[in-house]
Specification:
Blueprint (H helix, E strand, L loop, with lengths): L4 H10 L2 E2 L1 H8 L3 H10 L5 E3 L2 E5 H10 L20
Antiparallel strand pairs: 1-3, 2-3
Length: 85
Amino acid sequence: MDKSLTYQYLLDKHGLTISFQDAARELDVYWERLRERCRSGEIRAEKVGRSWMLTTKALADYIDHGPAERPAPVPQGKRRKVLSL
């Protein structure tokens, strides 16, 4: 697997996941601006329960390649059903 220098740096410094505060420091932005970028899909992040999870890989991809491509919206009536266990 070809790792970018940015990803390797972030991985060594923060591990697999990174807090919004630490990621904001890396980007030199306020952490709420970073959260807005995640919410809009510019930076790939997952909402787990009430918290957001940001990986160092997603942050490195954003730094190296810019905003992520947003997935196309799912048309009404074509939404996937989520099964609960």
